[in-house]
Amino acid sequence: MKFLSALIIGTWMLIFPSTQSEIPPNGTYTYEVVFAEWGGKSLGDEIFVILEDGHISLLISENSNVLWVGAEPGDVWEEGTLRKHQSGVWIISHDESDVLLEEIGGCTGGPIIIDFEKRTIELC
Questions:
Q1: For residue 44, which of 35, 33, 36 has the smallest C-alpha distance?
Q2: 92 has which bridge partners?
Q3: pTM given for the model
């Protein structure tokens, strides 16, 4: 019986993979900024996410509620290569070795975490 349950669950996961396991198609999206130091809460701030063939750019939105030090709407806040970290989350990476880093996201100084399912970018 355990084998049958495992087979059904495994088949289900292959047919209907988690949305976080997939990168959305190339395009421009609006994501919410969440802050690690506030437990992942948001101030209602948004940022534009541009995806193109594994490259990602984060652009300041004209509807940004946060004062970005010296930034203007349309400025690039961060950019890099999308890579899946060993923990299973997607990160904005500048080096292939980033996927093995112990500390990522938030206020660690490591790569930024992006959550495609929740449509959020985690900053400090």
A1: 33
A2: 82, 112
A3: 0.77
Q: Tokens for 69?
A: 């030090």
Is 11 within the bounds of a domain? no
Enclosing domain of residue 83: 23-123
Place 22 in a pLDDT band, splitting at 50, 70 and 90: confident
Q: Is the pLDDT of residue 20 over 80?
A: no
The per-residue pLDDT for range 63-91, each reduced to its tens digit, is 776 656 678 888 998 999 999 999 999 99
> Secondary structure of 54-89 in the HEC alphabet?
CEEEEEECCCCCCCCCCCCCCCEEEEEEEEECCCCC
In a domain, residue 100? The reply is yes
Q: Is position 16 within any domain?
A: no
* Other residues' Cβ atoms within 10 Å of the Cβ of residue 19: 11
Structurally, the chain folds into a number of domains equal to 1
Contact 117, 21 (CB under 8 A): no
